[in-house]
Specification:
This protein is α/β, with parallel strands linked by helices and 269 residues long. It has one domain (10-267): Alpha-Beta Plaits. It is 16% helix and 19% strand. It has seven helices and ten strands. The longest helix is centred in the first third of the chain and has 9 residues, at 77-85.
Length: 269
C-alpha cells in the first residue's frame, strides 16, 4: 500500500459525467496473492519498460498541461487520435466502449433568484484521461500488482496479470479506466489489449520509450489542429516547456483535495 493518507473510500468522489459542476470537479483547489490470467485475454506484444536511451528512472516525471482556454467545445481531435493510435474500436455502446480519453464540459453555476434557477456563468470543455497520480489509488487497491506506477510517473496496467476485478475503476476519482467487455480487434503491437481486463491512458508510453522525443498522439493531434492546448514534457526539467508554462501561469489539478498529486494539470478552469 502507498504511504499516502488518502483512502480509496475518499477517492470514490468521482468525475462521473460528461457535464459536471466546476466546484465538485476541482474539489478544494483555489481559484489562482495468486496471479492468474483473465479469461478471454488475447495479448500481442508488450510495451517496453525501458527507454531506448536508458532505464526508466526517477530523474524524470512525465506530465501534461492542458489549457482549457484553447480547447474548443466540439473538437475531439485528441480523443480520435488516442483511439486510433492505440487500436480502440467502438462497438456503438457508449456506456461500455473502451475509452482512454473523453471530453467533458465543466460549468460554474450561480443562483438566479428569479424563476430560471441556476444558470451557467462560466463553462469550459476539456479532455480527461488517467491523471498519472503520484499516489494512485488504483495501484493501492489492485490485488495482483497489475496496476503499477513507473519511476518516471506513468501509471500503467499489466494486462498479463490483470484479473478484471475492477477495483481500480472504483477507486479512480476521475473515472479514467475502462473494462474491455469485447474481444480486442485491430490491436496495435505497442498497445496489447484483452477482453476481461482494465485499460487506461498510457501517455503513449511506447513513444516515450523510443527515446526520440515524440509526443503522445493526443498532443500531436491538438497541435495539428492549430489549437496548441496540450503540452507534454518532463515536470522535473526546469527548462521544459511544461515547467516554464506552469511557472508563468496559474494551473489546477482536478480533485486537488484528494492529495493524489496528478501529473496532469489544467489552466483556464
Amino acid at each position: 500500500m502507498s504511504d499516502n493518507p488518502t483512502s480509496a473510500k475518499q477517492s470514490r468522489l468521482a468525475v462521473s459525467s460528461n457535464n459536471v459542476d466546476r466546484r465538485g470537479f476541482l474539489g478544494s483547489v483555489s481559484a489562482a496473492a495468486a496471479v492468474v490470467l483473465a479469461p478471454g485475454v488475447a495479448l500481442i506484444g508488450l510495451a517496453e519498460a525501458r527507454s531506448a536511451g536508458g532505464p526508466v528512472t526517477e530523474s524524470k516525471r512525465w506530465g501534461m498541461l492542458i489549457d482549457a482556454n484553447k480547447c474548443t467545445r466540439g473538437c475531439d481531435a485528441c480523443v480520435s487520435a488516442c483511439g486510433g493510435g492505440n487500436g480502440l474500436v467502438s462497438h456503438n455502446r457508449p456506456q461500455t466502449d473502451v475509452q482512454w480519453m473523453r471530453k467533458v464540459t465543466v460549468r460554474d453555476k450561480v443562483h438566479d433568484s428569479g424563476s430560471k434557477g441556476d444558470y451557467p456563468r462560466h463553462q469550459v470543455s476539456l479532455p480527461v484521461m488517467c491523471q498519472h497520480c503520484q499516489y494512485p489509488p488504483c495501484v493501492d487497491v489492485c490485488p495482483t500488482g497489475a496496476s503499477f506506477r513507473r519511476e518516471d510517473g506513468i501509471v500503467l496496467v499489466d494486462r498479463h496479470i490483470c484479473i478484471g476485478c475492477r477495483y481500480c475503476m472504483m477507486a479512480c476519482p476521475y473515472k479514467a479506466r475502462s473494462f474491455a467487455h469485447e474481444v480486442a480487434i485491430k490491436q496495435k503491437a505497442h498497445a496489447p489489449r484483452g477482453k476481461g481486463t482494465v485499460e487506461a491512458c498510457t501517455l503513449c508510453v511506447h513513444r516515450i520509450d523510443e527515446g526520440l522525443g515524440r509526443m503522445p498522439a493526443c498532443v500531436e493531434a491538438c497541435a495539428s489542429e492549430g489549437r496548441g492546448a496540450m503540452v507534454f514534457g518532463d515536470l522535473k526539467d526546469p527548462d521544459s516547456q511544461i515547467s516554464i508554462s506552469l511557472r508563468d501561469y496559474p494551473s489546477a489539478a482536478l480533485r486537488n483535495d484528494l492529495g493524489l498529486y496528478p501529473g496532469v494539470r489544467y489552466q483556464g478552469i
